[in-house]
Q: What sequence folds into this?
């Protein structure tokens, strides 16, 4: 079972989708990512694209993020996300967008949203470089923001400017890449 690994909701259990349609981020990978992001989470506005169970956004909220938008196209995943948001009493800080990635990004752009942290945990076979480019193109990432992409260790995304790779870690079969906008002073 998946759980929150840190913060005010530490050890709280999360529901996940049964079957092979999703691949929840392992607790050890999640802990490692949030250790890297430690000083970026508190007060952050978070986007969790391909949210699955909502574990990454809910982990961020537990660790002090201000708000979270969670998007997923799967009706089954959206039901699990709703249940997890309700179980953790995060309704006032989390919003669910039950739609495909590009539709969610366009909706958020129209609403004038910008995010400090963006989590992408899509199917490993997906080329996330295109979605990362769309996030930057629409101005959805703040100048000192960070995009965190989970991927297969063998196929890291080839993200191009206006984003740059700042770090990449490998945990077993999982790779995690960190991207920031180019040409801006980076916050801590």
A:
């Amino acid at each position: 079972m998946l759980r929150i690994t840190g913060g005010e909701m530490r050890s709280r259990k999360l529901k996940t989708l049964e079957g092979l349609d999703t691949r929840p981020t392992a607790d050890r990978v999640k802990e490692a990512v949030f250790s890297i992001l430690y000083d970026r989470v508190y007060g952050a506005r978070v986007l969790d694209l391909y949210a699955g169970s909502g574990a990454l956004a809910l982990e961020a909220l537990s660790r002090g993020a201000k708000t979270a938008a969670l998007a997923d196209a799967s009706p089954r995943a959206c039901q699990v996300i709703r249940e997890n948001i309700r179980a953790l009493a995060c309704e006032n800080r989390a919003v669910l967008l039950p739609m495909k990635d590009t539709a969610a990004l366009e909706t958020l752009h129209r609403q004038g949203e910008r995010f400090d942290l963006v989590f992408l945990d899509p199917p490993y076979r997906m080329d996330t470089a295109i979605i990362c480019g769309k996030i930057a193109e629409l101005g959805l990432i703040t100048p000192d923001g960070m995009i965190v992409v989970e991927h297969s260790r063998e196929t890291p995304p080839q993200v191009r400017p206006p984003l740059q790779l700042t770090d990449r870690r490998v945990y077993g079969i999982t790779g995690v890449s960190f991207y920031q906008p180019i040409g801006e002073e980076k916050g801590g």
User: Anything to note?
Assistant: The two ends are 33 Å apart (CA to CA). The chain has a mean pLDDT of 90.
